[in-house]
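Notebook entry, structure prediction.
Reason for the run: the old model in the group folder had no record of what sequence produced it. Starting over properly, with the input documented here first.
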Amino acid sequence: MNYWLMKSEPEVFSIQDLRIKKRSGWDGVRNYQARNYMRDQMKIGDLVLFYHSNAEPSGIAGIARVSKERHPDPTQFDKKSEYFDAKSSPEKPIWEMVEVEFVEEFSSVISLTTLKKEKALAKMPLVQ
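New structure, fully documented this time:
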C-alpha cells in the first residue's frame, strides 16, 4: 500500500463534501506529475492524505482511500467544463483520474510545516 497527498480547495471540494458523498472521482487534475502518479502508481486501497489548499488554515483535513484505479477524466471532453482540453479525445485521452472514498475527517488540520517535520512523510510525492 502507498500513501499519497491530494490537494483540493475546500470551497471547490472539501473533506466534508467527500464525507457526505462517500466517494468521488478526483477529476480536473491538470498537473502532469499528479496525472502520472494517478495513471501509473495509485492502486485500490492506497491511502490519501486529503489536503485543503488555499484555506485558512491550509493542511491535511482527513484521509481518503483509492477505491477505483485510473480511468479517463471525463471533464477533458466536456466543452462546458473549465477542465476541457481540445487536444484530448476519447480515443487518446490525456488526463486520468482515480476515485477516492471517505475514511476519516480530522478534528483539526495538520499543517504542511508539521508534515515536513516527519521525515517519512516529507518524502511523499507532491509534498516537496
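Summary: The first strand starts at residue 3 and ends at 8.
The old model has been moved to the deprecated folder.
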